[in-house]
Amino acid sequence: MAVATGVMPARRSWLMRPNMLWAFVLGIAAFVFVVWGLGHDGGLLPSWGLEINQIMFLGYGAAILFFFIGLGVFNEPVKWLLGIPISEEEELERYGAYGGIDRYFRYTLDHKVIGIQYMVTILAAFCLGGFIAMLIRTELLTPNARFTDPETYLSLVTEHSVIMLVMASSIIIGSFGNYFIPLFIGSKRMAFPRIEALSFWLFLLAIVIMPTALFFGGSQTGWTGYAPLADQMHAGHDAYITTWALAGTANTLVGINLVATIWLMRAPGMTWSRMNLTCWSVLVGAILDWLAMPIMVAVQSMVGFDRALLTGLFVPVQGGSAFFYENVFWTFGHPEVYILAIPGMGIVLDILPVFTRRPIYAYRAAVVGMLGIGLLSWFVWQHHLFVSGLTPGLRPFFMFSTEMISFPTGLVFLAALGTLYGGAIRFKTAMLFAVAFFPDFLLGGFSGIFVSDVPSDVQLHGSYWVQAHFHFILMGATLFAFFAGIYFWFPKFTGRRLNERLGQVHFWLMWIGFNGTFITLAIVGIMGMSRRYATYFPYLQGVNVTATIFAYLLGISIIPFLWNFIYSWGWGEKAEENPYQSRSLEWQVPTPIPVDNFEEIPLVLSGPYEYWSNQPMAILKPSESAGTPAAGN
Q: According to the model, what pLDDT value does residue 16 have?
C-alpha cells in the first residue's frame, strides 16, 4: 500500500478505536458470562444439561470470538459485505502509517509491527514460563515436597512446558520471520497480510489462555497431554487443548504465508542462491510448520471430542487406542523440534560472516544440511516410543534414521567452523550468542544419541537426562539464536543500539546459568532421578541444590537484558544506518523503515556474503517516503 506524504487525517482517540484493551474486556466478559451462566447453579443461562467440558469449550470459543470483535478484525469484512467504503484513516491505520506506541496494541497489517508484537509477546511468555520454572526448582531444593502438593506441582510442570513450547514454536519465525523476510527478498509486504495478522492474535490468545487452567484444577499431563490420561483430567485440561489448537492454527498460517512470500514475491535477481541463510532456514521451518502443526490441531481436537462428546477415540475401554494418540502426537512432536531449531541455525550463520568479514563457507552445503534435517525429521518420531512395547521390529529403523540426522547437521557445523576459521572475529554480544549456539546444540545432539539407541534409552527414558537433552536443543540453541538476532537487529528495529556492556553481562550470566543447570540435570538423570516428581531420594539432594542455584542464575540473567531492552529502545545511543557494514538487503533501506519498505522493488545484483566485492547487493531507488512515520520502529 502506498502512503502519500503530507498531513495525515485526524484520528479518533485511542479508546474510541478497536484495540487490545477492548478485545480483552469483551473476551473475558464473554468467557465469564458463558461459564458462570451455564455452569453455576442459579446462573444467568439455562445449562441445557451440558457437562463441564462442553461448557468450558463454549466459554473459550465465546471468549475468542468476542476478543476478535473487540479488536476490530471483522470491521472491514462486514463493511465490505454491506458495501460501506473504508475510510482513509482506517486504511492508513491498518497498514501502520501512524506512528506511536499504540500501533502495537491494535490489529494491523504491517509485517514490521506484527514482528515486534510477536517479539514482545515472546519475551513476556519467556519471563512467565521462566518464573514458573523457578517455582519448580525451588520445590526441588529438598527431597520432600514442602510448598506444593503433587497435583499442583504437576500443574506447574504442565504450565511451564506448554507456555515455553508455544512461545518457542514462534520464537524465530514469528518475530524475525514476519519482520525481515520481505526485507530480505526485496518485497513490499507479506503475501497474505491478514493471515499474518490473524496468526499473531491467535498466538497471543494461546499464551493467555494456558494459565487459566490453574483456575479450573490445572492439567497434570505434562506438555505431551497423553491420552487416556487427558480424558481423566480436570476442566483445566480444556485450556491445554484450546491453547494448542490456537497455537497450531497460528503456526500453520505463518507457515503458509512465509512459504508463499518467499516462493512468489522475491525481487528480480533474487535467485535461490542469493537468498541469505536466515531466509532458507525460515523457509524450511515454515514448510515444517505448514505440514506438522495441523497434525497437533487434529489430535487435540480429537481429545476435545473425547472430553466433550465422549467419543472414546483414545480410551481403550471404549474401543479407542492410546498408542494411536502417541503416534499421531509424536508425528507432530519431532518435526516440531526442528521448527524451532532450524530457523535459529540460519540466524547464527548469517551473523558469523558479518563479524568475521568473510563470506559464508560452504553456502550450498549449509542449505542442503537444513533441508536434510527438515526431511529426516519426519522419519524419527517412534524413538519416543521405544519403551512403550509398540512394534519392536521397527526399533532398528528408527534408531538408524534418528542418528542419520547428525549428517546434515554436520554440514551446518561445517559452514560455521569454516566461516570462523581465519576470520577477523569481533566478539560483540550478538556474536557471542551466535557462537554459543553451536556448543549447546552439540551437547543436545550428543545427549540425544543416548535416547536414540534402544539399550541406553531403556535406562534413560523418563529421566532428567531426557529433560536436559530437550533443553539443550530447544533453549540452549534456539533461545541463544533469538537473543543473537535481537542484539544484531535492534538498530534496525529502533534506530538505537543496545548497551554492549549490559549485553555481555546478560550473555555470561545466561550461558553459565543455562549450562550449569542442564549439565547438572543430565548428571542427576544418570543417577536415576525421574522427571515430573516433586520428591526424590535424599542422596540426590546435593545435585538438585546445585542445579537450582544455577537455575536462579539463569533467571537473574534476564534482568539486565530487560533493562537494556526497554531503556535502549527509548533513550539508547543512536545507531548508524548500517552499523555493521553488512551487505544484506535489510541494512540497505533507511531507518526508520518506510511503511512500504521500498518505493520501487529493487534489482538484486549479487548475494549477501560477497564482502570482497565493491558492487552493492541491489540497486535501490532512494525512498521518498522515508520521512513518513515508520511502522516497525
A: 67
d(CA 571, CA 577): 17
Q: Determine contact, residues 335/288, Cβ cutoff 8 Å.
A: yes
Instruction: Report how far residue 609's alpha carbon sits from residue 358's, in angstroms, rounded to the nearest whole number.
Output: 7
Q: What is the pLDDT of residue 622?
A: 46
Rounded (5°) CA angle 344-349-353: 150
Q: Which letter does DSSP use for residue 227 in this model?
A: T
Do the Cβ atoms of 138 and 147 come closer than 8 Å?
Answer: yes
Instruction: For 483-530, write each residue's pLDDT tens digit.
Output: 999 999 999 999 999 999 999 999 999 999 999 999 999 999 999 999
Residue 544 or residue 43, greater confidence: 544
Task: Count Cα atoms within 13 angstroms, Cβ side, for 361.
Answer: 17
Cell representation of residue 401: 534414521
> Using alpha carbons only, how large is the chain's radius of gyration in Å?
25
Q: Give 603's strand partners.
A: 619
- Per DSSP, the residues of 106-157 read S----HHHHHHHHHHHHHHHHHHHHHHHHHHHHHTTSSS--S--HHHHHHHH
pLDDT digits 0-9 by tens, 592-605: 888 888 888 999 98
Query: Is residue 217 within 8 Å of 236, Cβ to Cβ?
Result: yes
For the chain, domain boundaries: 16-86, 87-619
Confidence of residue 95 (pLDDT cuts 50, 70, 90): confident
Exposure class string for 26-59: b at 16+ Cβ within 10 A, else e? bbbebbebbbebbbeeeeeeeeeebebbbbbbbb
The CATH number given to 87-619 is 1.20.210.10
Predicted TM-score (pTM) of the model is 0.93
User: What sign does the dihedral 557-558-562-568 (CA atoms) show?
Assistant: positive
